[in-house]
Amino acid sequence: MAPEDRIIDAVVALDPLADLPRTGWLLRGVRPCETIAEHSFGVALVAMLLVDELRREGETVDGERVLRMALVHDAPEARTGDVPMPVKGGALESAIHDLELELARQVLTTEAFASYAEAEAAESLEARIVKAADKLQMMIKASVYEQKKRGALDEFWANPKNFRDMGIPLARRVYERLRVRSGRAAPAPP
Amino acid sequence: MAPEDRIIDAVVALDPLADLPRTGWLLRGVRPCETIAEHSFGVALVAMLLVDELRREGETVDGERVLRMALVHDAPEARTGDVPMPVKGGALESAIHDLELELARQVLTTEAFASYAEAEAAESLEARIVKAADKLQMMIKASVYEQKKRGALDEFWANPKNFRDMGIPLARRVYERLRVRSGRAAPAPP
Amino acid sequence: MAPEDRIIDAVVALDPLADLPRTGWLLRGVRPCETIAEHSFGVALVAMLLVDELRREGETVDGERVLRMALVHDAPEARTGDVPMPVKGGALESAIHDLELELARQVLTTEAFASYAEAEAAESLEARIVKAADKLQMMIKASVYEQKKRGALDEFWANPKNFRDMGIPLARRVYERLRVRSGRAAPAPP
Amino acid sequence: MAPEDRIIDAVVALDPLADLPRTGWLLRGVRPCETIAEHSFGVALVAMLLVDELRREGETVDGERVLRMALVHDAPEARTGDVPMPVKGGALESAIHDLELELARQVLTTEAFASYAEAEAAESLEARIVKAADKLQMMIKASVYEQKKRGALDEFWANPKNFRDMGIPLARRVYERLRVRSGRAAPAPP
Amino acid sequence: MAPEDRIIDAVVALDPLADLPRTGWLLRGVRPCETIAEHSFGVALVAMLLVDELRREGETVDGERVLRMALVHDAPEARTGDVPMPVKGGALESAIHDLELELARQVLTTEAFASYAEAEAAESLEARIVKAADKLQMMIKASVYEQKKRGALDEFWANPKNFRDMGIPLARRVYERLRVRSGRAAPAPP
Amino acid sequence: MAPEDRIIDAVVALDPLADLPRTGWLLRGVRPCETIAEHSFGVALVAMLLVDELRREGETVDGERVLRMALVHDAPEARTGDVPMPVKGGALESAIHDLELELARQVLTTEAFASYAEAEAAESLEARIVKAADKLQMMIKASVYEQKKRGALDEFWANPKNFRDMGIPLARRVYERLRVRSGRAAPAPP
Predict the structure, then answer these.
(1) Touching partners of C (3+ C-beta pairs < 8 Å)
(2) Which of A11, A73, A177, E179 lies 20 to 30 A from D113 at CA?
(3) How many CB pairs (< 8 A) connect A and E?
(4) Are residues A32 and E32, on separate chains, in Cβ contact within 8 Å?
(5) Residue C152: its chain E contacts at CB < 8 A?
(6) How far does the CA of residue D149 sit from the closest CA of chain F (Å)?
């Protein structure tokens, strides 16, 4: 396949991310709400800011890998839409994981798929930054929606899964600061 | 639980169906598009009309069972959103089926869940009417969207799975009529 | 007319119910808001649940008739849109009633029109269940919108017309439970 | 009542015009579509342009009266929403006319109501300009929607009621020009 | 150019005002929000009501000029969209002013442009009424949005620029009344 | 300022990008349309794919810098909204450029602002990739909207400014391929 077609095909394949809503917001009355593309943009932004602060702390991070993973981490949802998290638990989880891997392979180029797979593995520091950014973006968005009176989002703050720090102390501190700024007590240590 | 709470809880549990889009339309550029509640209303309507015509043909049908099944056939989607069909194929299918059964049990009353389970089994004439109505409603909606220039829906007409008649000749004839009215040739016999 | 056309024509004629908003919500700042099709789905759901509970209480109810009426009770609005209730009072009421009857005849099949007419008469137990479900669905929806901070709906709770029980004690008890759950005192007996 | 309250009350009473859709567009698949406030703005604009051209032709017109009528000509719809025209025919027409007059009185100040009443009478040149502008705006909007591929609007061009010129030759010439520009033949003379 | 084309061209040129949002509302979480056309309608309405009250007070006002200015005061935004006010400060202000003047000339007829230019000069009593109405409409809309729980608009009430009275005591009194009605203290005298 | 606040503040400051529409689509009838955040996501995606293909061609590219610039290249629009291009020509251009630089400084962290400034300078290969991706994303989106019948976008294909390749032959080839795939002749060489 010519490089031109490879580029156009991948962009067209991911285009639905800009029409598909983040289901979790809809379920709580935010309508219209953020799309998956907007979320992915936000995750890349948070990840970039985390990289900058980690470097200030002396950490060595491969920034390109972080940003690539952030951009494609929800790529399979261009085919399935955003399926809310509670669903993904239980015996179903590995079946969905396999499907998403296959869909990611279909919609992404070779290089982009490698980024997706690294993000899924969630092992490298870079992948963990993306995983943390995924939740940090969500909770910052929740606080913005609350401030703008859109929807009923209390349960977001009660769900410990929404505060995943992936072993990155900076991420933990952002969650804590966010709780304080939204008028909620910082969570007890796990 | 008091009957009052049973009623309110079930209605509230299914309320998200009125905020969740039918993902297939979004993927093809219809925006805004039909919600799952609007689809369920349409399926019940088509099913009612099928019952009336089948009775004219001399068939005996339990109309109440048909309408109950139509109303709750997508109940689990109040928790997961509408996951487009291509996803449901392969090894994943039975895992999703199990999950949906469990979610249906959570959101529905005992009687309503019985209707859901009968629809899923897809064996009784009544259940087959609902399954056919599910696709008939979708294809009539596709023709309405096309007539109103909303989205690009050609592929809907090319997918044989969208013309499931469940062994009901009347359903088959509606599909054929619909193809003619939308300016497409009737499909070859299977 | 062939049965196929009869089915397609009726579904197409009622299709606008999925694009037309329930005006009362718009007037109070819920935007986007429920469509007439979503409301009709909800009324059918509430009616089904009422039937189940009435049967548990020993009542004999024709469930099919109830569900048919619920599905078509707003059929004429496919031509006029939802006209808010205050308008329908006074000398205008019978003129609008006549028009709606005529529009229902135009958009519905013979059997479906019979259901519409029975619902309008509001005499049979089945028709009264549908009339009660019409308001019960509205008040449950109002409580859901309130919980999700969509719009300003206080006046809904102050309007006695929104608590019509049609002589069905179960309906009365659902209203009362709903008031309590929404943090409002139960209304004084009439 | 203090002048301040009179102003605020009237603006608040007409505020729903900015949330209520023009039903006719929705019925033909334009979604989202123009609101009544946007329509009223457009009618005032067309009316102003008609006044300017009529003056160039040597006509004497009271421009203020024209613009006042244009602004309030749909005021009662702030309470009822836009009820599509086909409905307003027949025996119902005078009943609705009476209701609208009463609603206009409720939502408008004394001076604004006088403008509404003059527009309804449709006798003065100024009122006829507004009535013509009402339809001219609609047909220009239809041509814009068509050019932007929003909805299916053919029937608008086939309905003679949409080309009401109120005895104003200039209005007639604008309709004819619009037909030509939209690729349709000019209508035969009446 | 023929009068017919002059009319159609101007209406088409201003048509985007009905699709373009008032950016300030979006920035504060009102979504969907008022369009520029809806705002312009509201400004004309407020201006009309101000004229009526000023006349009651014995003032002589040219009502036609007021309404014409109100209708076209945001005409250039049909090309640029609504650019929020903070941006327009500083050295940029006169450059934007020049551009808007040029765009207004492009989209408006000769007579309509004269109204635009008079409004921009903001010197005549009539022009000052329109400038005051521009802000009065905005603050009345803010109070309506607040009452309907749409968005977070506190900062609107804190910004003195939003209470511009253009030397018209009546305008000042409306602002004060509005503050009281929205539960805020009247501002201190400047 | 603590790192936590620095991250949260920047994300909140850019949050409006997810509510602000790309004005150019609205002006041509795409409604709802892409937001600035969705566009920025798309630009980053295109830029990433360009980097991969350029590397295959043997080019050395700093991928991190490319992706950072793509993410923040429209950051000032979080304060102003998207102002359509035609406006930015003429004497106004440098004034707007200065304003955007100042706004970027306000909303971004030090490191992110450096990326913004590099993108604006448009000199490095990395910055030119982002500039090309900015237009490539737009034209791919135009072709997707056309395929889905959303809006009237012919003029996008006629405007040479929309085919800026920034001296990157690969970008040129993607534009040409896109023209062919959308059924348009490739443009004549400049």
Answers:
(1) A, B, D, E
(2) E179
(3) 17
(4) yes
(5) 147-149
(6) 6
The answer to whether the Cβ–Cβ distance between A41 and F46 falls below 8 Å is: no
Cα D149 off chain centre by? 23
Please spell the DSSP secondary structure of D113-178, one letter per residue: HHHHHHHHHT-SHHHHHHHHHHHHHHHHHHHHHHHTT-S--HHHHH-GGGG--TT-HHHHHHHHHH
E187 and E181 Cβ atoms separated by less than 8 Å: no
Query: What distance in Å separates the CA atoms of residue D144 and residue D148, rounded to the nearest whole number?
Result: 6
Å between B73 CA and nearest CA of chain C: 12
pLDDT averaged per 10 residues, chain E (length 190): 97 98 97 98 98 98 98 97 74 84 96 98 98 98 96 94 97 97 72
CA distance D59 to chain C (A): 39
Contact: D174, E7; criterion CB under 8 Å:
yes
CA dist F99 and D170 (Å) reads: 47
- CA–CA gap between residue A4 and residue F132 (Å, rounded): 14
CB contact under 8 A, F81 and E86: no
Residue type, F189: P
Whether this model's pTM surpasses 0.90? yes
Nearest residue in A to E30, CA atom: A148
Q: Of A135, A139, A160, A146, whose CA–CA distance to A29 is shortest?
A: A146
User: If you measure CA to CA, which chain C residue comes closest to B47?
Assistant: C7
Tokens at D89, concatenated: 């025919």
- Do chain F and C touch: 3 or more Cβ pairs under 8 angstroms? no
Neighbours of E126 (CB within 10 A): 22
Query: Are D82 and C81 contacting, i.e. CB atoms less than 8 angstroms apart?
Result: yes
Contact residues, chain C to chain A, C-beta under 8 Å: 32, 145, 147-150
Rounded Cα–Cα distance for residues A95 and D20 (Å): 46
Which of D165, D42, A42, A77 has the alpha carbon at shortest distance from E10? D42
Instruction: Provide the residue-wise pLDDT of chain D in tens; the chain has 190 residues.
Output: 899 999 999 999 999 999 999 999 999 999 999 999 999 999 999 999 999 999 999 999 999 999 999 999 999 999 999 998 666 666 678 888 888 999 999 999 999 999 999 999 999 999 999 999 999 999 999 999 999 999 999 999 999 999 999 999 999 999 999 999 999 876 555 4
As a whole number of angstroms, the distance between CA D110 and CA D116 comes to 10
CA distances from residue A126 to A37, A130, D16 in whole angstroms, order as listed: 21, 7, 51
* Residue A84, pLDDT score: 85
Cβ–Cβ of A8/F181 closer than 8 Å?
Answer: yes
F22-75: pLDDT as tens digits: 999 999 999 999 999 999 999 999 999 999 999 999 999 999 999 999 999 999
pLDDT digits (tens, 9 = 90+) for A54-66: 999 999 999 999 9
Q: Shortest CB distance from C15 goes to which of B12, B56, B144?
A: B144
The residue in chain E having the minimum alpha-carbon distance to the alpha carbon of residue F29 is E19
